Amino acid sequence: MAKMIINLMVEGGKAVAGPTMGSALGPAGVPVGQVIGKVNEVTKEFAGMKVPVKVIVDPATKSFELEVGSPPVSALIKKELKLEKGTGDGSIVGDISFDTLVKIAKERQGKSFGKTLKDVVKEIVGTCSSMGISVEGKKANEFMSEIDGKDIA
Q: What is the pTM of this model?
């Protein structure tokens, strides 16, 4: 029998055995409590953020393994800036440093469409622009042109 894959979106470290989780995991025949415990253990570093988790179940043995994805870039930005949400109305709700952009880019490298770290930084600046986040005191789209001249390691 083929393995079952169950895709979940949980708050880091706070998954609960509610109806949604039960209805997703129940048909797989795995012990829901054990899965929830393991999910919370492996996602605790993402506390306060939604994170994708893939539960891979072997129906024959009722064993499971987890693959934890990366939270969306917007969630990483909000975490770094301690924001509840961004804005879509053009106003500025926060400012992020270049070093923080690079830190987030390093977390996302390999999970992004960007081929280089500089490309990933540009993607994150684009997300900042749509969220109302300035970069080093400048509107994100104005900062974009400065990235090519920066040394990113």
A: 0.70
